[in-house]
Write a structure and sequence with these properties.
Layout: H1 15-54, E1 70-71, H2 78-81, H3 85-100, E2 106-109, H4 114-128, H5 131-134, E3 151-155, H6 157-166, E4 172-174, E5 182-185
Antiparallel strand pairs: 1-2, 2-3, 3-5, 4-5
Length: 209
C-alpha cells in the first residue's frame, strides 16, 4: 500500500494578514494578563480593607510582634513613643543598670491604641468565656493603663524578677499578683511600691508616682 506524501504546510495568507492575527493574539494575551493582575490587586485591597474593618492591630496601634520584643532604646516604635516620658526614662535607667548585671530588659507591650485594647478585650472574652473572667487579665480601653501610656509589659522572666526586686529604686512597680510582667511608675524613685492587686479586675484608682 502506498502512502501519499503531503507537502509541508505553507501559510499562503498575505503577510499583512498574518501580522494582524499575531497582533490580535498578543492583544488577547496582554488583556488576560491585565485582568489577572487587576483581580490580584483587588483581592489584596479587599483583604486590607477587611483587616482594617476587623480592627486587626498593627505597629501604629502599639502592636509589638510576638517573639520580637523591643529594646528600651527603640523609642521611635509607637509602643514606646506613646509612653509617658517619665515611665520611659525610668525604664531606660533601670535597663541600663540591669544590663551591667547581665540582665536584658525587653518590652513586649507598651502604649496601645483604644482600638487595639478593645480587640484584646474581645479576644480575652472569647478565650475565657465571659467578660468578668476576661477582666482579670485585660482592662477595657477606658480603664487601661496601656492606653494612657502608663504601663509596660516586660520580658524575659529574669528581667521581670530583677525589676520586682529592684524596680522601686526607679519608681517601677509590679501592679497585679497574676502578672509578673506588668509594671507601672507607681511610686517615687526609692519609694515603696503599693500593695499588689489580685488582678486587673480590681477597680481601685491607679497608684501613680
Amino acid at each position: 500500500m502506498s502512502h501519499t506524501v503531503l507537502p509541508p504546510f505553507r501559510d499562503e495568507r498575505p503577510t499583512r494578514v498574518r501580522r494582524r492575527i499575531t497582533f490580535v493574539a498578543l492583544g488577547v494575551c496582554l488583556a488576560a494578563l491585565v485582568a489577572a493582575l487587576a483581580t490580584v490587586l483587588a483581592g489584596l485591597a479587599g483583604a486590607a480593607l477587611a483587616s482594617s474593618v476587623a480592627g486587626d492591630p498593627d505597629r501604629s496601634g502599639g502592636l509589638v510582634a510576638s517573639g520580637s520584643p523591643l529594646q528600651v532604646t527603640e523609642v521611635d516604635e509607637p509602643a514606646l513613643a506613646g509612653l509617658d516620658a517619665r515611665l520611659r526614662d525610668a525604664l531606660a535607667e533601670a535597663a541600663a543598670d540591669a544590663a551591667e548585671q547581665g540582665i536584658e530588659i525587653r518590652v513586649t507591650s507598651g502604649w496601645r491604641s483604644e482600638a487595639y485594647q478593645r480587640r484584646l478585650m474581645e479576644d480575652a472574652i472569647r478565650t475565657h468565656g465571659s467578660e468578668a473572667e476576661a477582666r482579670r487579665y485585660v482592662a477595657p480601653p477606658e480603664q487601661s493603663r496601656h492606653v494612657t501610656g502608663d504601663a509596660v509589659d516586660l520580658a524575659p522572666v529574669d528581667a521581670q524578677y530583677w525589676l520586682i526586686q529592684y524596680g522601686d529604686a526607679y519608681g517601677l512597680c509590679q501592679i497585679y499578683a497574676n502578672e509578673s510582667w506588668h509594671f507601672e511608675l507607681a511610686t517615687t524613685p526609692g519609694g515603696v511600691c503599693p500593695e499588689l492587686r489580685e488582678d486587673a479586675s480590681d477597680g481601685r484608682a491607679p497608684a501613680t508616682g
